Amino acid sequence: MMDALRDIFTGVLTFRIPEIRIQDIIDILIVAWLIYRVMMWIKSTRAWSLSKGVVFVLVTFLLSNYFGFYTLTWLITNGASAGIIALIVLFQPEIRRALEDIGKNKLLPVITLTGDDDDADDITSQITDAVFDMAKVKTGAIILIERKVGLGDHEKTGIKIDALFSEQLLKNIFEDKTPLHDGAVIIKGRRIAAAACILPLTQSEIGHDLGTRHRAAVGASEVSDADIIVVSEETGAVSLARQGRLYRRQSKEQILKLLERPKHEKKKVFWKGWQGIEKDK
């Protein structure tokens, strides 16, 4: 007994804390940041419900293995490989959005300026004015405002415009019976990039009273970070789609607030990095 205590005491006295390098600290910080980003991404998507299901399956597997439930353990073990493939197929939009989020995060500050605060605010105001002018006469419209993720794929489905933005031009595009009125308009910076663009329809349930325009707006918002404004041809109501959510029947003030960018973003690339509030009416 005394020999064992002596060995333990000697081991405590001779124990040395491993040398910590600066690389180890950086390594820990990077891993902590990655875990935080993954958790925040999971919490903001359908993957949050998925994660709870995965935890339940893992707990069930550990308990079945501990108590010797061999059949249940075998089922979970052999079903895991097929389950992973099924989850990748089911959650493809979320996985794509996560990769886009990784791609658009900037580690270095953007120092190139292509516009100023007054220009950005002025164009935001002009878009809103044009939208509510169309809403008064129930002119249907769908407008994509590009943020950090490029909309090149959607642009290719329409007709290239590449014209300096103006309220009159935007309203004329959506005028009934004109060649370009049927489809979406894409706005990039201070220019109207394309018109008559075709957008993917969402598979989510958004309400039976909403038509193809609203389904297309939500569908496009699921695969990009664009702000998408929709004017209903039936009611004249103005809605905004963002990140798979639809903010219905917004007032002019609410649309302006949703499109408002934070001050720290206004000093970066013009019209990029809009940050809206999440206020569902």
Give the spatial strand order of the biggest sheet: 2-4-3-1-5-6-7
Which regions have little confidence, pLDDT < 50, spanning 5+ residues?
106-116, 263-281
> SS-based structural class?
alpha+beta
Tally of DSSP helical segments: 11
CATH evolutionary superfamily of the largest domain: DNA integrity scanning protein, DisA, N-terminal domain
Global outline: elongated
Biggest sheet architecture? 7 strands, mixed
What CATH first level of the largest domain would be assigned?
Alpha Beta
- What is the CATH topology descriptor of the largest domain? YojJ-like (1
| SSE pattern, N- to C-terminal | HHHHHHEHEHEEHEEEHH
CATH arch. level architecture of the largest domain: 3-Layer(aba) Sandwich
Strand content: 5-15%
Number of domains: 2
Work out the number of β strands. Answer: 7
* N→C terminal distance: 73 Å
Helix content: 40-55%
Q: What does the oligomeric state look like here?
A: single chain
Task: Kindly report the average pLDDT value.
Answer: 79
Radius of gyration: 26 Å
List keywords for this structure.
disordered C terminus; YojJ-like (1; 11 helices; 281 residues; 2 domains; alpha+beta; seven-stranded mixed sheet
